[in-house]
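Researcher: I've got a protein sequence and the SMILES for fe (ii) ion. Could you write out the 3D structure of the bound complex as structure tokens? I'd like something to compare against our soaking experiments later this week.
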Amino acid sequence: MSIISRPYNNLNYRKVFMNDQTIILQLQLGAMENFTYIIGDPSTGEGTVIDPWNDTDAILSAAAKNKLTLKSVLLTHGHYDHTGGVKFFSEKMNLPVYLSKDEFMLYVPACKTLKRLKDDDTVAVGTLKIKAISTPGHTPGCISYLVQENLFTGDTLFIDAVGRADLPGGNSGILFQSLQRIKNLPDTTMIWPGHHYGTRTSAPLSILKTSNPYLMSNDANDF
Ligand SMILES: [Fe+2]
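Model: Sure. Here is the predicted complex with fe (ii) ion in place.
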């Protein structure tokens, strides 16, 4: 994997080329230090947005600057700070919005273009295939999205911590199991969290395995 990373610019995003086939834009938006991501296939100009914050102008500007047209929205979960832009992208752009089927019991954004995902489903973005990996615990229907060796973990896993499990629908034991599943991915997998709560904006799984105390734990009772 070759990575060319550019720092945040005046549009407040960081651009990462994973290779010739994938562009990742990491936008830090809002007072809660949320990360919204745009994943793009430069060969087709198609892109998707993960967890759109409600600053949709910033998201559209970043996509346009990189010659990407957004075709879909992927949600890691249904909390409001990850879904603020859903109404715009659904109603104004008629984009499909993907959410875990297990999130519908508690957290469902008002949206007419919602589509249900289950574990191991894939969503195509140009020639890219984005795989849904069920990682519940922060909420009942948390999904992490895998594209090539990049995992977008929402509030399941941050660089130095994990998401809360004490909110409605949360379960620390289930979160622990989800972390074990993530730990089984290759060490070279890049972790892209849902908030900038850590010392870095992304990191390989190998580093988190030796620095994130929640990922280092092998005992569910530690949670
Ligand atoms: Fe959350």
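Model: Residues 137 and 174 are 5 Å apart (CA to CA). Residues 172-183 form the longest helix (12 residues).
Researcher: Great, I'll pass this along to the crystallography team.
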